[in-house]
Amino acid sequence: MTWSGRVNWRWLLKQAALLFAVLVIVSPVILFFVWMLSLSVKYEIDNAAYPPVLIPERFAWKNYLDVLESNRFSTYFLNSLLVTGTATGLALLVGVPAGYGIARMKAAKAAVVILVARITPGLSYLIPLFLLFQWLGLLGTLWPQIIIHLVVTVPIVIWIMIGYFETTPLELEEAAVIDGASRWQVFRYVALPIAKPGIAVAMILAVIFSWNNFVFGIVLAGRETRTLPVAVYNMISFDQLSWGPLAAAALIVTLPVLVLTVFAQRQIVAGLTAGAVKGG
Amino acid sequence: MARAGLAPSTVELAPTEAPAARWRPPGYWPFVVPALVVVVGVIVFPWAFTLWMSLHEWKVGADPAFVGLSNYARLPTDPRFLDAVWQTLVYTALSVVLPLILGTLAACVFHARFPLRGFLRGVFILPMMATPVAIALVWTMMFHPQLGVLNYLLSLIGIPPQLWVFHPATVIPSLVLVETWQWTPLVMLIVLGGLAALPTEPYESAQIDGASLWQVFRHITLPLVAPFLFVAAMIRMIDAVKSFDIIFAITQGGPGTASETINIYLYSVAFAYYDVGYGSAIAVVFFLLIIALAAALLVVRKRTQGSVE
To answer: Is A8 on the interface with B (CB under 8 A)?
Structure first.
């Protein structure tokens, strides 16, 4: 009796220590986002208070209204949507078949290009492509950003799809070939439907990394063609000095990604660790 | 005439060259070609063009003039570049080591079973998926010497206020703090994957032998997850060297040039001074530096492979 009581006590202690460790580990993340939220709903007077105020007496919802109603916000939101959407769509269109082809040819060595692309600093694409876009007269439109975002999205899609198609079973495809299907038909009607989970992973990661991209935008975007991260950066440096609306804008920009991360956590973890373990 | 002569011969050739059993369809190349065109256009072409530009004196607006390797010769005599190299190395070393340690600890905790584990793992990876500029903006506010919440938190435990990113001596550690906060989750995920693949037998026998928690970690867990730690270190190194968004959005390389890494300097040279020839030379050397660091990590891995076990 006393013996089992002691074991229980030790188990409880261990459990408590574990929960404490979990709390310590996740608290920097939770506190940061709580503070971000707090900054975004406070009036200037509360944001400048010392000691800092976590929950204000009056909530400044107007910070959000200010951002959403500012005449350029909808333009920048649409720009972000168009750049990320088109760059991801194009990447899936060329990257999924490429991943399939490379996996079936067992030509994974061809993917070395993707690895080197992963290592290359983004700015070394920016200088030559900037000059090219200037020469083509494309600056001032969204096309330079859509095209250069392919540098981000295409390698992600190809890499993840190679890994995915390498693990899908060949038997069904062989059966389809025996039944007289062409390579294209095998891909379209056998391989592609099975690959949907892999495509989802590739799409989610491509969307997030394209949406978050900042460096390409600060060089290529003009006043009318800014994406949201660039617009937020410009708010810091030029237009806006009060913290409330700034924090509100920051939260609005990153909210879609945060929501996607929480809901598609399984896919993101799978994609990142697959890419990471193979990509190292 | 030539056409008429060619046509029959190709028809004749086809069957002889490809007898029934040997004939192979065009293969999987058609699947790869569209992607190949894109990759050559947006990835390989910029590499080649960068190499070409690095051999030219070229300011945007003027005509390029071939100058051989003189852009490269200028690098070792450019004090700002040398400072940037040093600052990049310091920034990278700290941004690899700290997330590696903290991420491994976090992975050991997340390897255990506890309520809400899945959800909390999702929360924990938010920093690395969130938009870096948005994150940087909030950190800038938190770093503020008078109004920032960090100095308030320090005052609670009796530490005097700091200048954080506003002082040359503390700017790099402060930026590393952000980078560590952001990227510890990636290390955690990779190591967690390693822990999940561990065999259970060594742990059972260690328990029978009465090994302490630290002994188990040092002599069983660490050697077994070493390959994963290496992968994490490699990825972290590549990303930390190239870090741009956080540094640019918070300090733009300042105060002065105290946090100017190679990437930030490269940006200034190419897009503030429009010196694309010299900028391209920096880009090439920068790329070679990353390759060299990756090779150095590989050597370290080979050397320690025996000794960790």
So the answer is: no
